[in-house]
Amino acid sequence: MDCHALVRALERAGSVRKRQKGSHLHMWREADKKRVTVPVHEGKIVPPGTLRAILRDADISIEEFRGLL
Q1: Strands across the sheet with 24-29, in order?
Q2: Which residues contact 13 (CB under 8 A, 6 or more apart)?
Q3: Beta strands of 1-69 (E only): which ranges?
Q4: Do residues 51 and 11 touch, judged by C-beta distance below 8 A?
Q5: DSSP state of 31
Q6: Contact call for residues 55 and 62 (beta carbons, < 8 A)
Q7: CA atoms 50, 13, 6, 39: torsion sign
Q8: Confidence of residue 17 (pLDDT cuts 50, 70, 90)
Q9: What pLDDT was estimated at residue 68?
Q10: Which helix (H) or strand (E) holds 9?
């Protein structure tokens, strides 16, 4: 999965882009005060372990994430 699809899915889940420093985008979900950091590396995919960690930090299950894609 590329980083842009991941960011769009997180936005559908209610997260907003807060800021970006270098190649890391910080997103915030006001409803439950969750913050996640997404690596934004053009042309590269997000590794599976990193994806799972981002979803865990965002408190989103794999099934819920699939529905957001």
Answers
A1: 16-21, 24-29, 34-39
A2: 29, 58, 60, 64, 68
A3: 16-21, 24-29, 34-39
A4: no
A5: T
A6: yes
A7: negative
A8: very high
A9: 92
A10: helix 3-12
pLDDT at 1: 86
Q: Which residues partner with 34 through β-bridges?
A: 29
Tally the domains of the chain: 1
Residue 59 · residue 53 · CB < 8 Å: no
CATH number at residue 10: 3.30.920.30
Residues in a beta bridge with 2:
45
- Provide the residue range defining the domain that includes 30: 3-68
Q: What is the pLDDT of residues 21-56, one digit of tens each?
A: 899 999 998 888 889 999 999 888 999 999 999 999
CA 69/CA 65 separation, integer angstroms? 7
Dihedral pair phi/psi, residue 34, rounded to 5°: -95, 135
Average pLDDT over every residue of 2-13: 93
